[in-house]
Design goal:
The complex is a heterodimer. By secondary structure, chain A is of the alpha/beta class. Chain A has 6 domains: about 1-55, no CATH class; about 70-165, Glutaredoxin, CATH 3.40.30; about 170-380, NADH-ubiquinone oxidoreductase 51kDa subunit (Rossmann fold, 3-Layer(aba) Sandwich), CATH 3.40.50; about 390-465, Ubiquitin-like (UB roll) (Roll); about 470-555, NADH-ubiquinone oxidoreductase 51kDa subunit, iron-sulphur binding domain (de novo design (two linked rop proteins), Up-down Bundle); about 565-595, no CATH class. In chain A, helix 8 (about 185-190) packs across helix 9. The relative contact order of chain A is 0.09. Chain B contains 6 helices and 10 strands; from the N terminus they run E-E-H-E-E-E-H-H-E-E-H-E-E-E-H-H. Chain B has helices at about 20-25, 75-90, 105-115, 150-155, 220, 225-239, and strands at about 5, 10-15, 50-55, 55-60, 70, 130, 140, 165, 175, 205. The chains are: A alpha/beta, B alpha+beta. The interface of A and B includes residues 483 and 529 of A.
Chain lengths: ~600, ~240
Amino acid sequence: MRQFIQGIAENNHYQATRLLQMLRQIQSRYHYIPEAAIEQLAGLLNIPRTQIISVVEFYSFFHLSPRGQYELLISDSITDHMLGKKNLLGYLADKLAVAVGQVREDGVVSLDNTSCTGMCDQGPAGLVNGYALTRLDRSKIDKIAELINQQKPLEEWPSELFQVDDNILKSGLLLDQQFEQGAALKSALKRGIKETLAEIDKSGLRGRGGAGFKTAMKWQFCSEEQQTERYVVCNADEGEPGTFKDRVLLNSYADQVFEGMTVCAAIIGAKQGFLYLRGEYLHLYDKLQDILEQRRRNGVLGNNIQDAGVDFDIEICLGAGAYICGEESALIESLEGKAGIPRNRPPYPVTQGYLGKPTVVNNVETFLAAAGIAANGGDWFASIGTEKSKGTKILSISGDCARPGIYEYPFGMTIQVILNDCGADDVLGVQVGGPSGSFISNQEFDRKLAFEDLATGGSFIIFNSSRNILDMVHNFTHFFAHESCGFCTPCRVGTSLLQKQIDKIVEGHGSAGDVVALEELCQLVKNYSHCGLGQTAANPILTTLERYPDLYQSRLKEISYEPGFDLDGALETARRMANRDDAGAHLAQTQMESEHE
Amino acid sequence: MSKTITIDGKTIPFEEGQTIMDAAMAAGVYIPHLCHQPEFTPHGSCKLCTVKVNGRNCSACTYPAMEGQDVLNETEELIDDRKKITQMLFVEGNHFCPSCEKTGNCQLQAVAYHLNMLDNHFPLFYPDREVDASHAEVMIDHNRCIFCTLCVRASHQKDSKDVFAISGRGIHKHLIVNAESGLLKDTDIDATDQAAHICPTGAILIKRTGYQVPIGERIYDHKQIDQVSLETEHLKHGE
C-alpha cells in the first residue's frame, strides 16, 4: 500500500488541492480509506490528518471502514421509488444475503441507498463501484447477484447493465445546432473579445443552474478584477433530484460545452478551467478526457489556441457524493480538496473564487448556450423566449409520463403543453425545479416556464393521481437532512427537525398544533440558513402545505396536546434488555389509542 | 467624515473593512453570538448574530458594514428566532446545565437566559456522544459541542497547532482531534493553549478547576452576557 499511496501523491504533485481525486483512487482500490493511508498521505501532503479525515467523513462515497469489493448503491430518488425501488432493493438484499447499509460477512459486497444518481428517465438506477446501473428489474438483479457471487470483474459484466441512453425527445435551438469544433472560438476571436462579450450580453443569457444571474455580467465582473490569475469552472455537479440534462449534454454535446468554457476563458483571461463532474457520472469520465485530448490535438485547447495567443486548458475533477457541492462556493471548496462547505459571501467567486482568485462558475447548459451565442450572435438566442427569460431551457422530464427524457423548450412554454408532449395523463401535480423548487397542482398548468414565473434548473417530475403527495414530501425532506453540510445551526439542526416532524405527521403521531409547529420551523430554516440548500429545504413542505392543507390536517390525531416523543419507542431499549416483547411491555401513546385497542 | 450605518435607528460609525459586528461592538451595541470572538477570523455558522440589513437576513459577524445600511437588531422577530436557534443548539446535543461544571460561565447558557429561553421548544435528539478524558489536564465532553470551531481556529491561529477539526456532515458533524489514536492525550495540546480555554460551552474543560469558583460567583451569575461581551470582547477587539 505504501507504494500505491506514494505513487498517487506523486502523480498529483503532492498538491492538497487534489485530495479528493487521490481519495477516490484509494477508495476505489481498497474500498475504504485505511488509517495507514491517511497517515502516509498526511505526511506526503504536509497537512494534518484531521484535514483528510474531515474530507473522508464529509463525502458519501468515502468510508473509514471497509465496504464490499462490490460497492452497490441504489438510488433513493423519488422517481426510483415511483418505479418500484423499495421492492427491488428488498429483492436485491435477499438475493445477495446482505442487509441495506451493511457489508456482507465475506466482505464481497456492500449495499446501501444513495441520493438521486441522475438516471430518473431510466430507473430504477444504482451504482456499482461508482459506475451507473440503469433500468434495474428482477432479472437484471438476478444477473448482478450472480456476477457478484462469482466475483466477476466489472469489465466482464455485460454492457447492457451499464447502458445509459440520452433520450432526447424534443430538441430546439441548442440541441439542434450543427456544431463544428472551433467554430465558436473562431467567430469570437474574429469578432473580438469585447464584442463577443457584448453579444453574450445582448443574448440576455442567464445562468441555467436555476438562479438566473446574467452570464455576461458575471464574466464582466470577473474580467474587471485586478488579478493576474483567473479560473473558469463548469458546474457539472448535477445533484438536484430529477435532473439529468447535464449527463446528456456531456455525453453528446461536450465539445460545445468545452468550447463555451474556452470562449469564457478568452473573454475573462483565464488560463485554467475545471469541469467539476459529479461522482455519479464516472461513466462519462474517459469519454470526456478523450474529447479534451482531441481538442488539444486540434489546437482548440492548450497553448496558443487557434494561433491567437490564447492559452487555456481544462481539467476534470470528480466529486464524491455531496449534493451541496452544486452550490458554487462549496464546489470551489471541493475543487480545493476540502469538504464542500459554502463560503461566506461577500466576497463572491467572481472576486475571490478558486484559490482566492477571480472565478466564473457556470452551469453546463450555460456554457453550451454561450458557445452557440459566440458562433451565431446574441440575436440568434434573444429572438426566442420571453422578455426576461431569453432562449430555451432544457428540461429533464421524469415521473408519471409515457415518454420520460430530455425536452428543450423556448422559455414561456406552459406546463400543460409540456405535459401533453411527454404523454402525461391524470396528473396530480408537477415538481418543478426538483425538491428545492416548487410543487404545482393541476390547477396551475397554465403557468409558464420562465424566471419570472417558474424558474428551474431543469428538473420536472410528474405525479399522477395515484401518488401520495406526503410520500414525496417525506422523501425530499429526508434528502435535505441527508445532504445538509451541517455548517450552520438552522440547516444542520433544522433539516433534521423537519425530518422528525414530517415523520411524526406521516406516521400518524401528529396532534393538533403539529402542522402549525411544522410551518413555523419551515420559516426558521428558510429565513436563517447560510446557503441555498437550507433556504430551500422547507420548500417541499411549504409548497404542498399551501396547496393541500387538509392533507396534512387529516393525518393528525384529534387530541390537543403534543406527545413529546414516542412513548412505546422509548421503551425499546428496556424491552431488549429484559428480553420481553409481550403486550405488557408496550405502552400506548395516547389515551385514545388505548381505548381503540 | 466617517462612514455610518444605522442599527435600530441609531447612527453608528464604521471604518472600511469592518463587519457589522465590529462596528456594533465598537459602538457598544450587543448582537448575540456564540461562534464569534473578535480575535479570530469570523466563521458565521451559529447564525445567532443574524440581523436584517436593508430587509435581508445577514450574519453580522461576517457581513461587511457598508455606507447607508439600515440594520435591524433587536426586533421582536429577530429575538424570537434567535431564541429558537439557541433552542436548536440545546436539543441537538446533551446540555444539562445543573450538572455541568461550566454552568454560570457558559456562553450558551448565558445567551439562552439573555434571550429568555424557558424551554427546549423542539424535541430532544439525545445523541450518543462520548467523553474523552484521556488527557491528564484537558478533557472533551462531546455532548456539549456546538461546532462553533473556536477551538479549531484558536489552535491554528493562536497556538500554531492543529489539535482540533470538525468532521462529518450534517447532523453527524463532530469534533475530532489530531492524533492517530483519535484521543486527546496523544495530541500536542497543552493546558495553557488558547484552544483549551476558548470553548463557549462546557465541551472543552481544564480538569480539576471546575468548582474553584463557586456557583453564584461566576461570570454570568450577576451580569448578563450582553454586558460581559461588551466589556471584555470590545477590549480585545481594540487591541
